[in-house]
Design goal:
alpha/beta; 8 strands; about 45% helix; about 10% strand; elongated; binds magnesium ion
Length: about 230
């Protein structure tokens, strides 16, 4: 049987160390405002601002205009346009990639091992395309397979449409397709609902949430993956 492996990216193959939260801090700084993104309440507030954007319920410019409106009155934000703001934010994010993005331990080796055994690999990640592509390149170098990003696909995990796009890109049927990710809802339950085999990367020994479709296999480290996929 033809087998292929799709991966989530964030916290599965790479870490971005809260890159977008850092970008909010750098953006505020451009307006002469210093915010401590490490402070818990500020961090929570920024994550809440990012949530609807990440869920494709709000555009980037709308999110950023909402953020700017929370800055103190002395912020130098006159003559800002939503498009100009988004342009600044995107550039700040790109500028942070080299500094913040790192591979997960064993990611490059795991991918190389799969490819060496003739197993096609792909990435299916929720996020905005250009940033996700830059993060993948920084963490993994030249990734040897398709990189599908939700914002370009117009389909977000855990939707069936997102996994269907991965299946098409990798050219195997659902019976041969494995999906590997850290997120029980978006990655594991989503892949299982679509009929794929799903490997939960549980690097921190967490309990699997009740009420969700169970993973086919659980690993703590990526170097466990090739044997599982090949043994199937
Ligand atoms: Mg993830």
């Amino acid at each position: 049987m033809n087998v292929a492996v799709g991966f989530d990216f964030d916290r599965t193959l790479g870490l971005d160390h809260s890159l977008e939260r850092h970008a909010f801090g750098d953006l505020a700084e451009q307006f002469g405002v210093s915010i401590d993104i490490g402070e818990e309440r500020t961090a929570d507030t920024i994550e809440q601002m990012l949530a609807p954007f990440r869920a494709a319920e709000e555009t980037m410019p709308a999110m950023l205009m909402r953020f700017v409106a929370t800055l103190p009155p002395n912020a130098q934000t006159r003559n800002l346009t939503p498009a100009g703001l988004a342009g600044r934010y995107r550039q700040i994010c790109y500028d942070l990639v080299d500094q913040l993005v790192k591979p997960i331990e064993g990611a490059r080796e795991c991918i190389a091992a799969l490819v060496a055994h003739g197993i096609p690999v792909g990435i299916l990640t929720n996020g905005w395309s250009e940033l996700q592509e830059r993060k993948v390149a920084r963490a993994l170098g030249n990734f040897p397979g398709p990189i599908l990003v939700s914002d370009s696909l117009g389909a977000y995990k855990p939707s069936a449409q997102a996994f269907r796009e991965l299946e098409t890109a990798l050219g195997v049927g659902p019976e041969g397709l494995w999906y590997v990710g850290d997120n029980p809802v978006a990655d594991i339950a989503g892949a299982r609902a679509y009929g794929l085999r799903a490997v939960w990367l549980n690097r921190e020994g967490q309990a699997y949430p009740d009420g969700l479709a169970m993973p086919t296999a659980v690993i703590e480290r990526l170097d466990e993956l090739p044997a599982i996929v090949r043994g199937a």
